[in-house]
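Q: What would this chain look like folded?
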Amino acid sequence: MELRQLRYFCAVADEGNLTRAAQGLGLRSPSLSQQIRALEQELRAELFDRSAAGMALTAAGRALLPEARVALAAAERGVRAVAAAAAEPLLSVGIAPGAAEDLPTRIVGAARHAGAVVEFRDLSSAAQLPLLRRGVLDAGVVSLPIEGADLTVAVVSDEPLGVLLSVRHRLAANASIEWADLVGERLLWFRRDLAPGYHDEVLRVCHEHGWQPAVRVSTARRSVTLAELSGSEPCVALRPERDADPTRSLMWRPLASDAPRLRLALAFPSDTRHLALAQIATDLNL
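A: My prediction, written as structure tokens:
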């Protein structure tokens, strides 16, 4: 039994869905399914009940889950203990979808300046918070707002959202878009469980300005957003300007007033033992 198999098993158990777990892990669904099957064969037990609705833990799976978490946490502690004994501490940092492409480079540079090394984990904002509190992650880049007075938060990115739409859309010719222009439009948006605070805050601003859009749920991946906005069913997305399509098949237009914002922060436990994190946060904080 390999640690990566236990990590894959926990990811599927947390998501209850193979496809979503594979996306979070950066794997193809068939590859993840193959790894879960190999683990089941080694343990000689079915760990999941598979159905069209998703994957639910069996009794064997429920018995394995807490032990798998203990084993993974122990492995993480072992890695950190070795790193702590070396010259440079190794920091495990989660990073949420939607972060600017230059942000990981900025974090690595700030960590180097603080005498630390960073390893990144691709995780949603919501998935990072319990891992931060359990000490599995040292820090995380999360979308604001979040709950938790026990976390120190340093804003590292703050961008206004605008309207991303097809060049064929009726509003594409507008230099800017009024809230009233959006009434009746469908909004391409992400699942609430990925970042509840940010999800709700943006919709609250929309509602305050008279737009209560029907929501079409999509992934947080930019490539999928571009494809769906270019499709035959009219809809718009709210994204920062950096997500404008370089091929010009999509247009980005600013909101004329009171644009909601995408604010990303470096969050870490307030009682962290890693002194380097405070310096990294200071270097990155806007």
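The longest strand covers residues 151-160.
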